[in-house]
Amino acid sequence: MSKALLDDVVEHAYADAPLECCGLISSRDGDAVQVYRTANTAKSKFKYVMDPREQLRITEEIEDAGLALGMIYHSHTRSDPVPSETDVNLAKFGDSDDPAWPGTLYLIVGTKSAEPDLRLWSIVGNTVEQVTLEVTD
Question: Which parts of the sequence belong to the JAB domain (predicted)?
Fold first, then answer.
């Protein structure tokens, strides 16, 4: 992921603090291409909810551009950027352990201090694994 795209995500996280932010990141061949900021309709310090119509519009825009949904991002304003039980459940399709967004990674930005703490995760069912976040110039 480029530093410029990552900076956009971090700026979004701090701009929305103390509320959690959320958004989507498109990719091509595993490389992040564009950040799509979305509103957290929950307006909460503890969880995020994307407007389904906005999420659908963005995912259609991503697909129409021949890209993939590479990452879903949000912030944790009071805790470490580790997926919560709520985060894990949001990554599932309904009540099943099937992924809601197969192949999509989850970027969490910790904003509890002045320096952002960024961690990337693979969440499939109840299996949560940290993934290396590679940043390029």
Answer: 3-123
All domains of the chain in start order, with CATH: 3-131 (3.40.140.10)
pTM score > 0.90 for this model? yes
For residues 1 and 7, what is the distance between their CA atoms, to the nearest angstrom?
10
Give CA–CA dist 42/17, Å, rounded: 13
Distance of CA 122 to the CA centre of its chain: 11
Side chain identity at 64, as an amino acid letter? D
Q: Taking residues 13-20, report their average pLDDT.
A: 97
Element (H, E) at 115: none
Rg of the chain taking only CA atoms, in angstroms: 14
The beta strand positions in the chain, using DSSP E, are 22-28, 31-38, 68-76, 105-110, 117-124, 127-131
SS3 at position 98? coil
Give 128's DSSP letter.
E
Query: How high is the pLDDT of residue 130?
Result: 98
Pairwise CA distance, residues 62 & 58, whole Å: 6
